[in-house]
Amino acid sequence: MEDKQCEGQVKGEKLSENIGLSDERCINTRKKLNCVDKSSHVTERKLKNTNSQSSSCDISGKTFSNKDGMLGHKHSHVDEKPYHCDICGKTFSQKGGMIVHTRSHTGEKPFSCDICGKSFSQKGGMLQHKRIHTGEKPYPCDVCGKTFSNKSGMLVHKRIHTGQKPYPCDVCGKTFVNKSSMLVHKRIHTGEKPYHCDICGVSFTQTGGLTSHRRVHTG
Fold first, then answer.
1. For residue 63, what pLDDT is reported?
2. In this structure, are residues 181 and 172 in contact, taking their beta carbons and an 8 Å threshold?
3. Is the pLDDT of residue 24 over 90?
4. Considering its fold, how many domains does the chain have in total?
5. Could you tell me which InterPro entries the record lists for this protein (predicted)?
6. What radius of gyration do the chain's Cα atoms show?
């Protein structure tokens, strides 16, 4: 009999604890909740658990590790850009893009190469730079097998095989495999010569011309 009374007392104490106030609060009212209230209120724990579940975009089917990532991605389909730079006003579909852009104004470069110390505004830029030190070239051309340290370099190279020249000169219409070549070409039309010899002052449209010219002075 005594054992049953003790058992009943323990159960009663546990029940009292369960219906007592918890450490959780409703995120809307900030009211401290008891166990009975929890089911009808949105708590931070519920919100965290909901947000941590994987979510899929109902337009493209792409999956994300959390709901926030999926919602940010969906802006790209509807051309919605709810995040704006408070310095220049430029808008972005995702908060991460806006944060990276803001660094162009502030000069912030939080990612440093642990080999030479050079700093970068984006982690991807730092990782790409490190391949100069390591010699890593993880992007191969699937036509000839030549490897590159970055994907964009590989894609530009592939145009040699495909003949694609997507950058036209808006003056004469001549096309080029990359934008930089097109811009160099346009200097023929504009007369721009941005590279100057620091000895005699003669100017050139390309760095190669300046380098060759300097040999006149250096022998």
1. 81
2. no
3. no
4. 2
5. Snail/Krueppel_Znf, Znf_C2H2_sf, Znf_C2H2_type
6. 31
Q: What is the CATH number of the domain that holds 79?
A: 3.30.160.60
Bridge partners of residue 25, in order along the sequence: 32
Domain assignment of residue 74, given as a range: 65-134
Residue 67 pLDDT class (50, 70, 90 cuts): confident
Q: How far apart are CA 150 and CA 124, in angstroms?
A: 10
Residue 30 clears pLDDT 90, i.e. is over it = no
19 falls within a domain: no
Q: Would you place residue 170 in the very low, low, confident or very high pLDDT band (cuts 50, 70, 90)? A: very high
Residue 126 and residue 113 in contact, taking contact as beta carbons nearer than 8 Å: yes
The bridge status of strand 203-204 relative to strand 195-196 is: antiparallel
Which residues lie across from 195 on neighbouring strands?
204
Task: Specify if 1 maps to a domain.
Answer: no
Structure tokens at 111: 């990612």
Dig out the tokens for 146 from the structure: 């030549």
Give the confidence band of 62 by pLDDT, cuts at 50, 70, 90.
Answer: confident
Return the amino acid letter for 164.
Q
Phi, psi of 85 (to 5 degrees): -75, 125
Structure tokens at 167: 């950058």
Same domain, 152 and 209: yes
Model confidence, pTM: 0.50
